[in-house]
Amino acid sequence: MKASFQRSLLRWYRTHKRDLPWRRTRDPYRILVSEIMLQQTQVDTVIPYYGRFLKAFPTFKALAKAPLGRVLKLWEGLGYYSRARHLHALAKTVQRDHRGELPNDPEALRALPGIGPYTAGAILSIAFGKNHAVLDGNVERVLARHFGWTHDLRTSQAHKKVWTVAESLVSKGKAGDYNQAVMELGALICAPHAPRCEACPVRSDCRARKLNMIDRIPFKRRTQTLPHYQIGAGVIWKDDKLLISQRPLNGLLGGLWEFPGGKRKPSESMAACVAREVLEELGIRVSVGPKVAEVDHAYSHFKITLHAHRCRYLSGTPRPLGCRAWRWVTSSQLKNFAFPAANRPILRHLRRQTSGT
After folding, report:
1. Cβ count within 10 A of residue 334
2. Are 238 and 298 in a shared domain?
3. Is residue 167 annotated as part of the catalytic site, yes or no?
4. Is the CA virtual torsion 265, 268, 274, 277 positive or negative?
5. Does residue 223 lie in a domain region?
6. What's the burial of 10, exposed, middle or buried (CB within 10 Å: 0-12/13-18/19+)?
7. Same domain for 125 and 210?
8. Given 35, 140, 184, 258, which residue is catalytic?
9. pLDDT digits 0-9 by tens, 275-305
10. pTM above the 0.90 mark?
């Protein structure tokens, strides 16, 4: 069964694989960039970012020398910004400790910033031809359905079992193609919803299909309702300048710039929230004016509604009390900074205001 699974999958992959830019190279750096970008992100979204990123930073050396702000700006809109920070730190480590060459030793590779078991397996197999497995959501779904696993795969015990099976199935000497084949099958055929079973090259041995349980595998327990926070932000003007702040490097959206603010407290008005958050974050007092934008945005573990208010600077010298840095900038300079997606409607409002439309 194992050999038949491998042969059928590889034969299907040779005929049906997508022509993707990172599949036209064996350069470990380019494969690394693609694998980092593809984490939790759709292929079609990644393709334009991949091209722009490599044009700006074609080598580890170029990426290591670049300021983090420029890296984040090129990553802007791709999300999960810790990936960009880790990739930047990784490039510096490779330049310093590995003479600018990505190590092909599993232990050394996994020691690099942002490299987990999946990314290490992908790079080792695709870039270096080593016999290592990969396990992402696509692979997990294919294996769960093929073998008819009905238990919750998110438990640590189940996860270990899935890794063991994934490693046992890797085609020796063809690990790169095999890993890409099983990921491709999950992306194109064995999709989470409405899978195209009639086009699956390994359907004859699929346990979930035989049991008529395709729509129930992989099994997942019902998730809890995401918490929803009300956030106040200040668009602070002083003459013709705006005040922006940079988030701490560690944590959500680390290193990005934003309009200062934070969570509203119970029974607090939004205007009071904005004034308090600005004072706590930057040590200045502002007069809070009308709302200029209201934005609903969802993150992986919570949702927010962002209420942005036009503010007028009153007093105090800005200090980075709850942020990494701050700047007074003109509205035309905002395009030089990387902002979170939730701030984009505010930026659009400012562009319209500046252009008079």
Report:
1. 19
2. yes
3. no
4. negative
5. no
6. middle
7. yes
8. 35
9. 999 999 999 999 999 999 999 999 888 999 9
10. no
